[in-house]
Write a structure and sequence with these properties.
The protein has about 675 residues and is mainly alpha-helical. The chain is built from 28 helices and ten strands. It is elongated and about 150 Å long. InterPro entries: HD/PDEase_dom, HD_domain, HDIG_dom, Metal-dep_PHydrolase_7TM_extra, Metal-dep_PHydrolase_7TM_intra, PgpH_phosphodiesterase.
Length: about 675
């Protein structure tokens, strides 16, 4: 039992990663659509790349969306609208005419003709209400047929037979001006203005019901393809008609009612493919990013971001697949690059795109555009903490999306007509959404405890609390750290290492000296050496302890682990040589292990650069009369000694890079001491 527990604890990191991979696979497959995926990828006006295709079953040919829309528009145009005729309002108008006629026609000129005028007014009123009065007809075109419903009877007529309230005056003028009752025009206008009210109303509910009935009669299909019929031959251009048949077959395949057995097989297939993709990512991290692989939090972070992108894309596809490019997928490589490196960012981005290829439409186009956009993202954003770089990159990403879409449209359509400008706006939205990466990186730093270049930039501020404390308590150490930072940054830039990280590490690598600052020569301004009264063992222990003290101070001040690594490794397992020799002189035989730093050895280019820069800068202070030759010699001597002691054994740094670092350090020290080549007399 104890052996089993020991093996478990020994391999718990590997077990966690396997469980993480399994859990991620299950979650991603859960998000995926569970219908079968059509096995052929085809595009209109492009050659059919597969063998001859024959209809596997009988299926109906679906009409295209454009054709269905034309038929629906035709149905809407041909529908006859319904209007309700209200007889009660007409009767009320006629009754009001009877009551008000006498009070309007009181003039003497009408006294002997009231009976004739009243009868004539009845005729006008009958004409007005023959088909009725409506308040407004601007929504309906002239000459259109309508159904006029009077109670239970429905009459078909023309919309022009209806009178509007604005037309009453025109009707009165037409009937009276050229007739015998021209003097009564104004009186009739006055009378009808008060009594004529609209009595015909558009019946939207009944019209819509009839329209829906007509729309439901539109068949979504147009013909049938019989089983065994050849649909397309190999190499044949997929024209519009063939394209629609293929789309119909795809819809038939994906709309099948899946049995439990088929459904399980589909899920099993997804599990295999997703698990293979995630396993490849895990293997890449293990083989090429061992430090990341050993950190479960970092591996979880990478998988979390992939799942997040799959989740967002799945939600968009389920809502409307046309908006799939709204998802700012380029955030993924930006985030991974910010915390790790460009190569891992691009590999992760490609794995995510491979997974999304299962659920997005036009898979080949989508994958091409997203891979190219990811490459542009990785290549253009060199320093994320510089805001201008991010804005420039966003502009380039948006341009690549638009350029790619434009090219695909030309390939498919053979023309620039019918460009969907809405798609261009989606690409612009995607580019702008990519700017959200900076607050996202800040959130990730707090949640996962990771460190980006943005945080490193903040740590370089010499006005920060910890560096100000170092400057006040140990000014000589602070000055030394600044010099080391300048040397290390220049060397990192020369070999392509992370210059920002190495500068931060250099600034904080000696903060442990704040505990006993006067025990270190650079802070002994009074000339009093505290080590004169101590044994070599005690002095060596004080010197060595500045590493442990530095780690403790760094943790209390919440410095990131990436920075603490520089404190731990900047002396590696080297020997405090001065006190070791002094102990040998006093005691003869001594244990060299008592005079060695605890390590660990530098394990990256950046930590190796710091070790070289720190040793060279500190040793340069001992030069009495520095010359170019002397500086070149002691730089070679110090770094070669570190190499002989295998201090760089665990660092992924080459001999060529070490030689380059030597040249940079020599040049910088010559500049510091203002040395020039000695010319012969």
């Amino acid at each position: 039992m104890s052996d089993l527990l020991n093996r478990f604890y020994k391999n718990q990191g590997s077990i966690y990663k396997v469980l993480l991979c399994i859990a991620s696979t299950i979650l991603i497959v859960y998000l995926f659509p569970k219908s079968g995926k059509f096995q052929f990828d085809f595009q209109q006006n492009k050659p059919w790349q597969y063998d001859n295709l024959y209809a596997p079953v009988d299926f109906a040919i679906l009409k295209s969306d454009e054709q269905l829309e034309v038929e629906r528009a035709e149905a809407r145009d041909n529908i006859i609208p319904y209007f309700n005729y209200d007889q009660d309002i007409a009767n009320e108008a006629k009754a009001a005419y009877e009551n008000q006629f006498a009070s309007v026609f009181t003039d003497s000129i009408f006294k002997n003709r009231q009976k004739e005028l009243k009868s004539f007014g009845h005729q006008i009123l009958d004409d007005i209400y023959k088909y009725g009065v409506i308040s407004d007809l601007t929504a309906f075109e002239d000459g259109r047929k309508i159904y006029l419903r009077r109670g239970n009877e429905i009459e078909e007529t023309s919309i022009e037979n209806l009178n509007t309230t604005d037309e009453i005056t025109t009707l009165i003028n037409r009937r009276l001006v050229n007739g015998p009752y021209v003097q009564a025009v104004n009186r009739f206008k006055e009378l009808f203005y008060d009594i004529v009210q609209p009595n015909v109303f558009y019946d939207e509910k009944l019209t819509t019901k009839e329209l829906n009935a007509e729309l439901s009669k539109i068949a979504p299909t147009k013909g049938v393809v019989n089983k065994g019929s050849r649909i397309v031959a190999k190499g044949e251009i997929v024209e519009q008609k063939t394209y629609q048949v293929l789309k119909s077959l795809q819809a038939e395949y994906e709309s099948q009612t899946w049995t439990a057995s088929k459904y399980n097989w589909v899920v099993f297939g997804y599990v295999l493919l997703v698990s293979v993709a995630l396993s490849m990512l895990l293997l890449f991290i293990r083989n090429y990013r061992e430090q990341v692989f050993e950190n479960n939090t970092k591996v979880t972070f990478i998988f979390f971001n992939i799942i997040l992108m799959v989740l967002f894309t799945t939600l968009i596809v389920k809502y409307d697949a046309n908006y799939v490019y709204v998802v700012p997928l380029c955030i993924l490589p930006l985030v991974i690059k910010a915390f790790f490196d460009a190569r891992l960012g691009l590999f992760t981005h490609v794995i995510a795109i491979l997974l999304l290829g299962f659920i997005v439409p036009n898979t080949s186009e989508y994958m091409f555009l997203q891979v190219i956009a990811g490459i542009v993202t990785i290549l253009t954003v060199s320093e994320l903490y510089k805001r201008a770089n991010l804005f420039i990159s966003v502009g380039q990403i948006t341009f690549i999306y638009i350029l790619g879409y434009f090219a695909f449209h030309i390939i498919h359509e053979g023309t620039i007509d019918n460009l969907e400008w809405e798609t261009f706006s989606m690409f612009i939205i995607t580019g702008l959404a990519t700017l959200f990466v900076q607050p996202l990186i800040y959130a990730y730093e707090k949640i996962f405890g990771l460190v980006s270049d943005l945080s490193l930039l903040e740590l370089t501020d010499t006005n920060s609390k910890l560096l100000k404390e170092l400057a006040n308590k140990a000014p000589g150490t602070f000055h030394h750290s600044l010099n080391v930072a300048n040397l290390a940054e220049a060397a990192a830039n020369e070999i392509g290492a992370n210059s920002m990280l190495v500068r931060v590490g250099a600034l904080y690598h000696d903060i442990g000296k704040m505990v006993n600052p006067t025990d270190f020569t650079e802070n002994q301004s009074t000339g009093i050496n505290t080590h004169e009264d101590l044994s070599p063992d005690e002095s060596a222990r004080i010197i060595i302890d500045h590493v442990l003290n530095g780690i403790e101070i760094a943790r209390k001040n919440n410095l990131p682990d990436r920075v603490i690594d520089f404190i731990r490794t900047h002396h590696g397992t080297s020997t405090v040589y001065y006190f070791y020799k002094k102990a040998q002189e006093q005691d003869g035989e001594v244990n060299i292990e008592d005079f060695k730093y605890p390590g660990p050895l530098p394990f990256s280019k950046e930590t190796a650069i710091l070790m070289m820069s720190d040793s060279v800068e500190a040793a340069s202070k001992s030069l009495k009369n520095p010359t170019s030759v002397l500086i070149d010699s002691f730089v070679e001597k110090i770094i070669n000694k570190q190499m002989d002691e295998n201090q760089f054994l665990n660092a992924n740094i080459t001999f060529k890079e070490i030689q380059t670092i030597k040249k940079v350090l020599k040049l910088k020290l010559n500049n510091i001491y203002h040395l020039r080549i000695e010319y012969p007399e």
